[in-house]
């Protein structure tokens, strides 16, 4: 074999295994004049571009309140944390209240470890996020 050539992947490896699938699901609904973005699955370096674009798109509509429901997230990596911080900053600059709904260890643990639990407006439920309850974080 020429040293500049690379062997082809084995023919018994399914094409779906060659490239990891994005394992994220995003849903949007309007409740009480607010926009609620429900995120489920893994939020990592493969899926954050999708999440970032989704949040930016919905911020352009300038909702009265943007709630990101992370209740269905099974993994939150550092790139996901960066997207959430950037979205919170952009929302603040645009005058849009921005709240997160977080209840699972997969989400709370990285937010706590990085100190973001004290910076972001975190609520326990979507209902709480839509109301006037005090934030759990800073």
Automatic annotation (TrEMBL):
Gene3D superfamilies: STAS domain. InterPro entries: Anti-sigma_ant, STAS_dom, STAS_dom_sf. It comes from the Bacteria. SUPFAM superfamilies: SpoIIaa-like. One of its GO terms (molecular function) is anti-sigma factor antagonist activity. Residues 24-133 form the STAS domain. Transmembrane segments: none annotated. Belongs to the anti-sigma-factor antagonist family. This is Anti-sigma factor antagonist. It comes from Streptoalloteichus hindustanus.
């Amino acid at each position: 074999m020429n040293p500049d050539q690379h062997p082809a992947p084995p023919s018994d490896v399914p094409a779906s295994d060659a490239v990891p699938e994005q394992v994220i699901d995003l849903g949007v609904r309007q409740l009480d004049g607010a926009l609620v973005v429900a995120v489920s699955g893994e939020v990592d370096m493969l899926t954050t571009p999708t999440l970032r674009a989704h949040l930016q798109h919905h911020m352009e509509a300038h909702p009265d309140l943007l709630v990101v429901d992370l209740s269905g997230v099974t993994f939150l990596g550092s790139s996901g944390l960066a997207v959430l911080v950037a979205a919170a900053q952009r929302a603040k600059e645009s005058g849009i209240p921005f709240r997160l709904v977080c209840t699972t260890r997969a989400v709370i643990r990285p937010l706590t470890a990085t100190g973001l639990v004290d910076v972001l407006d975190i609520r326990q439920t979507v209902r709480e996020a839509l109301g006037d309850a005090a934030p759990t974080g800073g």
